[in-house]
């Protein structure tokens, strides 16, 4: 390379580096923070409820028509479904990476609409719900009655009315699952009294359908000469237990009236009797908050936490929110450790450079290049649409040792020419003519090494894409700094004569240089012997290569490393057909054993739900 424009215009070189630094710092504060890149495929959930039906009836009459209609929707990878004896049906549709989750939900909804006519009337009356959400949790929390003043039903009803709707309105929240039953009017029919009056259950449901309705009643005095016109009001739906009890079932021949309370017990109970939950022996209701595809988990969690803090001020006395798990907790702990490692790596690299160059000014030049290269990479992450996660930060940690090399090459080349008697400016120009080509070629070669990583298919390729691009871009920026900033600083800072070092380290450097020279001579001697015995070198290489395969099989394999996130899930499975009461009793004993561990902060027990299958089941319980 003939001449170097940056050596002749040092202000321009420094200004470009400062601009890279400023843009990188601004990008750093705007980057979304995640634990890992967004690799989960977009997911659409379709849910329906067939009240009173068993799992087989739900499968045949609800899931099969929906699956047949949904199957083959655009960009769909696979589909899974679940039917329960509680009458619920859930279908999960997974889409290819990169699919727009909004369009995926619209396409699934259109397919569901086509199947509406094939579903039972009871299902279409309640409705079939289509929503987009990810399987990952944003937060898991509980509303707890700390003094036992309120029961589980009250807490579940409060959550359902006052809390969950507000959380669902937060952008990025896909769904909120509440593991609790809300209030509902329960009518327990008395078979012997029903038989006495010749009634069947359908007679009662028909009466309720006729009398428990909102009906338009029109106006009185409309289009007449009267002075007044009144809008008539019908009492409408029944609300209290007394109103339901006094519902007229039949008027008998003797003039007496048969009311609902004569043939049934009416009470304000729960919609279903599927769940029992408590936290630390106090009534509690668990809720799980799910994420939508493409949303920033960190930002959404902050919004959820802020909303919960606002709602906490209006909670009934004796209740409180307990956040048992937030994805931000482990995320920030992980990011903190990686950032700490990054800072330590930078300090170690600078110290190693100083030990070998033994000159403060010579060490300052690579140190500045490291900072500019790493901070400038953040701007590339924003441009590529990436996030600040464990893999991108890990890539920066690995890149430190690479980005410092180019600046060191420039500094050593300039110092070599200065030691030959050249002035700093002429020495820098001569040095850049020698090393510019190797710097560019080396940067391109190292960057190309990561191209195969970008070509990996599926989730693995998506996961390591950001890792490869981060290292590649940091190396390219470091090469640019080596061609612009490093020669400019070398021409201005490096001088001839004695090295500018800390006086107290003089004896240490003498010992260090002596030991390093001996190690270098030992290494050169070994290399010379291996060169003279070429076949021995080839055999050693072949032996090490052959050992790779058996040794690789001994190392455990896995997609991602197991990490302690501070919580555990436990499942309890009772024999088939066990009642909820027996399961709850067993869960209480297990919960008590768990609480005896001094390392356990909180434990919540949910009976009537299987964490393994994600469905309601009276013989299952889980602990968190």
Rounded mean pLDDT is: 87
Sheet/helix structural class: alpha+beta
The total of beta strands comes to 18
Shape annotation: elongated
- Helix tally? 21
**Mind telling me the C-alpha Rg?**
36 Å
Separation, N- and C-terminal Cα atoms: 65 Å
Strand content: 15-25%
- Return residue spans where pLDDT drops below 50 for at least 5 consecutive residues: none
Main sheet makeup = 8 strands, antiparallel
Residue share in helix: 40-55%
Topology:
Blueprint: H1 5-8, H2 10-30, E1 43-49, H3 55-70, E2 76-83, E3 88-95, H4 101-114, H5 121-126, E4 129-132, E5 137-145, H6 152-168, E6 173-179, E7 183-189, H7 191-196, H8 201-211, E8 219-220, E9 230-231, H9 241-245, E10 248-251, E11 257-259, H10 260-263, E12 264-270, E13 276-279, E14 282-291, H11 297-312, E15 319-326, H12 327-357, H13 360-384, H14 390-419, H15 424-449, H16 451-454, H17 458-483, H18 485-493, H19 506-532, H20 534-554, E16 570-573, H21 580-595, E17 604-610, E18 615-623
Antiparallel strand pairs: 1-3, 1-4, 2-3, 5-14, 5-15, 6-14, 7-12, 8-9, 10-11, 13-14, 13-17, 16-18, 17-18
Task: List its salient traits.
single chain, 624 residues, alpha+beta, eight-stranded antiparallel sheet, four-stranded antiparallel sheet
Question: Could you explain the architecture of this structure?
Answer:
This protein is an alpha+beta fold and 624 residues long. The chain is 54% helix and 18% strand. It has 21 helices and 18 strands. It has helices at residues 5-8, 10-30, 55-70, 101-114, 121-126, 152-168, 191-196, 201-211, 241-245, 260-263, 297-312, 327-357, 360-384, 390-419, 424-449, 451-454, 458-483, 485-493, 506-532, 534-554, 580-595, and strands at 43-49, 76-83, 88-95, 129-132, 137-145, 173-179, 183-189, 219-220, 230-231, 248-251, 257-259, 264-270, 276-279, 282-291, 319-326, 570-573, 604-610, 615-623. Strands 5, 6, 13, 14, 15, 16, 17 and 18 form an eight-stranded antiparallel sheet that branches. Helix 13 runs antiparallel to helix 14 (390-419), helix 13 (360-384) crosses helix 17 (458-483) and helix 15 (424-449) packs antiparallel against helix 17. The two termini are 65 Å apart. The mean pLDDT is 87.
